[in-house]
């Protein structure tokens, strides 16, 4: 069980533009659509869910100057202590999320200021007081921000600070390669791949086998399976299946972040990994029932 202090989440904060076409898309002309603008970003979403659940949490990210107050205000309203570095040149990251009637999403991503994040954007003393550091895979997939993530992992090891990692993107994971990603993140206390990410990392499409194989690199591996719940494996123990309530999703954006937040909130309160995974599934169910990736 972790000690007192704020969980520190470091990574992407973006502006999500959510687009739901109201009919067949017409090339070279107009298509009626419902379009909303929401604060997002995998790491910022996770921090927001953690804050809403009552876990003390601080978020570190980088934004463009015109959006600093917008994003800081949203984070603070959900109980998050925001530490947003203002980039002097780049705009805030933006993702256009196109949703279809089945709940699937196509994402067009410009990470912008997120790619300039540095380890020095983390305020002095913040990690020293933390019970946990959380990083997403997005912080490892580009060379500039990767240097910051690796530096933070080094600092965490020196402090004996537990780390959790969410691989985040199967497309970027394939591009980077599983061996490279495992080399970057091996030793983390928790890893939260989804079904596809686990298959890439472990080399098997069997989620249970993948979870058990990946405990060679991480203390606890939780493979999320959408409506089928998840599989939890602790090093040296057989994997355990944790069911979830199957729902028709309104918008799956941020569901994985919500799951991680529910898990980490429960773990910070003393739950074992299996009970924490069940808590994560309950929070994820809340997330898929609404537009946007935050509570």
3D architecture notes:
The chain has 295 residues and is α/β, with parallel strands linked by helices. The chain has a single domain (7-13, 41-90, 112-287), classed as 3-Layer(aba) Sandwich (UDP-N-acetylmuramoyl-L-alanine:D-glutamate ligase), CATH 3.40.1190.20. The chain contains 9 helices and 13 strands. The chain has helices spanning 42-53, 68-77, 143-159, 170-176, 178-185, 195-202, 207-214, 255-268, 273-287, and strands at 7-10, 14-21, 33-40, 57-64, 80-87, 93-99, 105-110, 133-136, 163-166, 190-191, 220-224, 230-234, 240-242. It has a 9-stranded mixed beta sheet with strand order 5-4-1-8-9-10-11-12-13, sandwiched between helices. Strands 3-2-6-7 form a 4-stranded mixed beta sheet. α1 (42-53) packs across α8 (255-268), α6 crosses α7 and α8 packs antiparallel against α9 (273-287). The longest helix is centred in the middle third of the chain and has 17 residues, at 143-159.
Q: Output the CATH class name.
A: Alpha Beta
Biggest sheet statistics: 9 strands, mixed
Sum up the overall morphology in one term. Answer: globular
CATH architecture: 3-Layer(aba) Sandwich
List low-confidence stretches: none
What's the domain count? 1
The CATH homologous superfamily corresponds to Ribokinase
Query: What is the overall pLDDT average?
Result: 92
Helix/strand/pairing class, anyone?
alpha/beta
Q: Under CATH, the topology is which? A: UDP-N-acetylmuramoyl-L-alanine:D-glutamate ligase
Question: Could you give the order of the helices and strands?
Answer: EEEHEHEEEEHEHHEHHEEEHH
Please tally the helical runs, counting DSSP H or I stretches of 4 or more residues: 9
Strand order of the largest sheet: 5-4-1-8-9-10-11-12-13
What percentage of amino acids are in beta strands?
15-25%
How many strand elements? 13
| Percent range of helical residues | 25-40%
């Amino acid at each position: 069980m972790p000690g007192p202090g704020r969980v520190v989440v470091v990574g992407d904060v973006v502006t999500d533009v959510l687009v739901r076409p109201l009919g067949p898309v017409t090339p070279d002309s107009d298509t009626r659509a419902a379009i909303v603008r929401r604060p997002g970003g995998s790491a910022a979403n996770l921090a927001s869910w953690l804050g809403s659940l009552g876990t003390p949490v601080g978020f570190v990210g980088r934004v463009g100057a015109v959006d600093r107050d917008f994003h800081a205000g949203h984070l603070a309203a959900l109980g998050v202590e925001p530490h947003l570095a203002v980039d002097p040149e780049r705009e805030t990251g933006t993702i256009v999320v196109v949703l279809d009637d089945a709940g699937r999403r196509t994402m067009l991503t410009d990470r912008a200021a997120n790619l300039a994040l540095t380890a020095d954007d983390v305020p002095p003393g913040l990690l020293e007081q933390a019970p946990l550091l959380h990083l997403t895979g997005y912080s490892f997939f580009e060379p500039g921000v990767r240097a910051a993530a690796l530096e933070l992992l080094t600092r965490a090891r020196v402090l004996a600070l537990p780390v959790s990692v969410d691989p985040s993107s199967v497309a970027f994971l394939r591009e980077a390669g599983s061996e490279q990603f495992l080399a970057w993140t091996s030793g983390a206390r928790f890893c939260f791949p989804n079904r596809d990410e686990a298959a890439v990392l472990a080399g098997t499409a069997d989620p249970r086998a993948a979870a058990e194989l990946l405990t060679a690199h991480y203390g606890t591996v939780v493979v999320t399976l959408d409506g089928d719940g998840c599989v939890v494996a602790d090093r040296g123990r057989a994997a355990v299946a944790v069911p979830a309530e199957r729902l028709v999703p309104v918008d799956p954006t941020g569901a994985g972040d919500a799951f991680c937040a529910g898990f980490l909130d429960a773990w910070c309160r003393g739950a074992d990994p299996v009970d924490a995974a069940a808590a994560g599934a309950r929070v994820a169910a809340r997330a898929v029932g609404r537009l946007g990736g935050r509570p």
